[in-house]
Amino acid sequence: MSLVIACVDASPAAHPVLRAAVATAPVLGAEVEVVHVPEPGRPELRVAAELAHLRVHRPEGDVVDRLAEAAQGPDVALVVVGARERRIGPRTTGHVVGRLLERLDVPLLVVPPEATVRAGIRRVLVAMKGTRSNAKHLTRAIELAAGAPIELVVCHVDDERTIPSFSDQAAYDAEAYAQEFLDRYVPGGRGARLELRIGDPTEQVLRTAEDLDVDLIAVGARGGSEAPSEVARAVVERSHVPVLLVPVLPTGTPTVPARRSDRPPPGSSRTPARSSGSRRPRGDVPAGDGTPKPR
Amino acid sequence: VTAPSGGWSVVVDGYDEELQRVHDALLSLGGGGVGTSGGTLLARGSAHRWLVVAGIYDGTGPETHLLVGPVLTGLAVAEADERLRRILDLRHGVLTEQVRDPDGTVELTRFVSLVRPGTVAVRTVPAAARPSPPRLVADLPAEEGERQGVRWTRVAGTHGGIVAAVVERRRDEVVDDVVAVHSDPAGAPDPDEAVARAVALDGIGVDALLAEHRDAWERRWETADVRVEGDEALQRDVRFALFHLIGSVPDHDEAAVGARGTTGTAYRGHVFWDADTFVLPFLAATHPPAARAMLEYRLRRLGPAREAAAAAGRDGARFPWESARTGRDVTPRTARDRTGELVPIRTGDEEEHIVAQVAWAACQYADWTGDHGFERGPGRVLLVETARYWASRVRIDHDGTGHIDGVIGPDEYHESVDDNAFTNVMARWNLRRAAEAVERFGGDDLPLDTRTVEPGEPGRWRAVADSLVDGYDPATGRYEQFAGFSDLEPLCISEVAPRRPIAADLWLGFDRVRNAQVVKQADVVMLHHLVPEAVEPGSLRPNLEHYEPLTAHGSSLSPAIHAACFARLGEPDRALDALHMASRIDLDDLTGTTAGGLHLATMGGLWQALVFGLAGMRARDGRLTIDPHLPTAWDGMEVRVCFHGSTARVVVARERIEVSAASPIPVRVGDADAVAGPTPCRFIRSDDHWEPAP
Fold it and tell me: What percentage of chain B reaches a pLDDT higher than 90?
């Protein structure tokens, strides 16, 4: 039996973490174990009655060291932690999350303190960059969930760098692109559907998650010694639903086939601009960050 | 994807899970209206294999899509992996795949016959690689059966159906599988037909089928090849494009050429202006029976086109923006675009220039072939019925000027515009060309239930043509793209975009581009490419220089047309970037959609850029006219065509042109006329003009 390790402190944030762990465990066919590292001068962990059946381990010492040790077990499928509490504006990614990411090779579910965690996971938004290594690791997370009755929605966001060069007929290009994207990055389909967006990746992922009322967002996060990607960090900081950070090792590491370097998503060739020799006066530059306005 | 020197093959090494569908489309094979993917025939669970037949659809209305037929499977036991090598022989239309292992090499050779429509053959060596008989499998629910010991599989959609029968023959170390594909656009095809054909094909044998197929491809190249001296990479890319243009268009009966031909199922196999405008000229100039079959597709749908015109309160024939089985419009009304938004699709209602494109295609065919029977008969009908449509469509203002309101031109960023220069000038050209045809051949005895042309009709067409405004400003030498275009936000896309090409509607949002002077693809410039005789003399330069910087090239059709126009402007070096871009759209999967099939119109545009643009060849007034503009980096080029029933070879060097033909054809270079025949005629450059060489 695989394990979901729920890492909690004694703050009010512990409750949503435990609820998220309990909601996620059936998807993975796992049991929940709670790890609480007592901190001197802080109150003892109190668990709500509905969660009183959970087994709680109380190792002593450095919080991150103990949590990392608990998460190293061969049966551990997922580690659940709380995000730092929001004060004014977006929360910052907690140092525990950052340090755990450096040491884990299993997905890390980060639960916002204010999250309303439903009893079961119904719908998951998987934010996919559309590169081989990103997809490979996210697909692994999808595979874990594939046996459960979960609606998987893959979201791919193009920004100014990756916006398509061509869009011939909107109806068919989006259809053909979506089909190929799923075939390429979600092999076998696994019942996933694709939502394409254009704009700032963080904004679009969060907006889509809200529009679709998802229970969880899965996003690739650089593993090993690298810092979490900008998008992953920003999503964690601003999401109202739990965020699954899936470690994505850079291409070239042994776990990723190194036959070819990561390619950009299909259709996003970085074609150099041609000098036009224009004699026209310069027009207004696009407003703001160039993010298109939805029609 | 690599290209050995010589420019006659495309090689894909290994099996790439991520790019396999792109490779399978690039290596697809077509012939006689049947197309099949280049997916490996070796064992691989996820291999992408399909078979389609041009014009065989399933579904109704906008949901009409190409029916996917049965494919052979279970052909070899070797695994497709990094040892796999697939070689597409462009010269002979043969795809070979090899897997080497310590026990030797497994090799599978397949082709889709160019000679016998509906024939697919596979040869496997050694026989040990094939322990069990092949099976024909389909994605859709299929019926299976056996007759005379021959197995067949049939899929049937709401209307059309495809049945395939396979005969296997083993001898020594070779296993041959011959598949007969039989289809019916209206119903479930009879398996007996397929079985009988499979037995007959087996009687001929794969050796003979392959030999005649290879000969047929060599013959096609004799009238279709374009040689580029000094750019080996482009050479291979050009032949790759021509290969798929040849393979995708049948030359018998009727040819429904969808946006991806028979190289994939994307765009649902719908027929757009891509076919008439971009693909047909190549075939009219290299293999007229295929161009004639494309026109036959339109002619057989004249009835629905007349009904569509009548339903809109117009006269004549209104061909649909998207066409499939019936000839009624199958353009979707809404779609979800790349921003996730549900957007209305107005092209079906408003992209009316398709009507003139059908007439233009008919004239291209007539001009290149000199087929007077067609001109007098069905060609005249197409001109008359399209002219009648325009004559009834044009609104005559109180001041006597003619207007066409509420259309979309090739620049689809601007919808519901009035007096789009492209549409108006094409309509004017259409009206005048129809009047000429009636004045030449008369207005009666028209086939296809066509109403006799009344004595005053051609005069009215000319009057309407003369009345049409076109937005031309003699002071600037420019056409205004549509009424009010120059009042829009002066947003110069070439100066503000991070790169071009770029899908500006996705980058800036549709509302922004709709209200700005941002152009998706050649629009006014396209006029100068299609009907240079119908625009103001000398107006190419001011319009190209003005509109190119405003163009996002967000359509894959755009680069090639700009390349052609830069060449005609006498600036061939400026054409090269766009030419290379057009040549790589599928080979580099620049759209991210190549897996769904190849961009056939871009390929046709590439040929036009080379032949109409750089070689400057046109069929005009019964002559082959040539006005070459070679890029500095090139040493020369050679173009093979078929002109007025004669094969012709045009060799262009910097200071010299040589034209030879199987039978005499009139040739004009600059102001110099000559007749080319088995004895070549030659021209030499003298200062800034060409002279016949002694």
Answer: 90
Contacts of B72 (CB under 8 A, 6+ apart): B41, B120, B122, B134, B135, B136, B166, B177, B179
Structure tokens at A156: 């791919």
**DSSP conformational letter for A287:** S
| 3-state SS assignment for residue B666 | strand
CB-CB under 8 Å, B340 with A195 = yes
Name the nearest CA neighbour of A106 among A228, A200, A5, A1: A5
The answer to whether A280 touches A164, Cβ cutoff 8 Å, is: no
pLDDT band at residue B282 using 50, 70 and 90 as cut-offs: very high
pLDDT at B694: 81
**Bridge partners of residue B651, in order along the sequence:** B638, B658
Query: Alpha helices, DSSP H only, in B378-498?
Result: 378-393, 421-441, 457-467, 493-496
Condensed to tens digits (0 to 9), the pLDDT of residues B323-380 reads 999 999 999 999 988 888 899 999 999 999 999 999 999 999 999 999 999 999 999 9
Distance CA B394, CA B397 (A): 9
Contacts of B510 in chain A (CB under 8 A): 295
Nearest-Cα distance to chain B for A279, in Å, is 8
* pLDDT at site A271: 36
Identify any residues that bridge with B675 across adjacent strands, giving them in sequence order.
B666
Which 154-213 residues of chain A touch chain B by CB within 8 A? 158, 160-161, 163-177, 179-181, 183-184, 187-188, 195-199, 208
Distance (Å) from the alpha carbon of B494 to chain A's nearest alpha carbon: 6
Summarised one tens digit per residue, pLDDT across range B254-268 is: 999 999 999 999 999
pLDDT tens per residue across span A183-197: 888 876 667 889 999
**Res B616: pLDDT:** 98
Q: For the residues B82-104, what does the mean pLDDT come to? A: 92
In the three-class reduction of DSSP (H, G, I as helix; E, B as strand; rest coil), residue A179 is classed as helix
Please name the residue that has the structure tokens 């060309």: B433
With contacts defined as CB-CB under 8 Å, which chain B residues touch A282?
492, 495-496
SS3 for B86-143 is EEEECCCCEEEEEEEECCEEEEEEEEECCCCCCEEEEEEECHHHCCCCCEEECCCCCE
Instruction: Give the residue ranges of DSSP H helices in B124-252.
Output: 191-204, 206-222, 232-248
The average pLDDT across B465-469 equals 98
How far apart are alpha carbons A267 and B593 in whole angstroms? 7
Strand-pair category, B334-336 with B342-344: antiparallel
Q: What is the pLDDT of residues B148-192, one digit of tens each?
A: 999 999 999 998 999 999 999 998 899 999 999 999 999 999 999
Name chain A contacts of B497, Cβ cutoff 8 Å.
273
> Would you name the residues of B annotated as active-site residues?
412
Q: What is the rounded CA–CA span in Å between residue A257 and residue A261? A: 9
Mean per-residue pLDDT of chain A: 77
Residue positions counted in chain B:
694
Min Cα separation A169/chain B (Å): 8
Find the distance separating the first CA and the last CA of chain B, reported in whole Å.
Answer: 47
Using left for φ > 0, alpha for ψ between -120 and 50, and beta otherwise, residue B416 falls in left
The model's confidence at residue A259, banded by pLDDT at 50, 70 and 90, is very low
Please list every residue in chain A whose beta carbon sits closer than 8 Å to the beta carbon of residue B339.
196-199, 292, 294-295
Residues with Cβ within 8 Å of residue A269, at least 6 apart in sequence: A165, B588, B590
Q: How far apart are CA B50 and CA B555, in angstroms?
A: 27
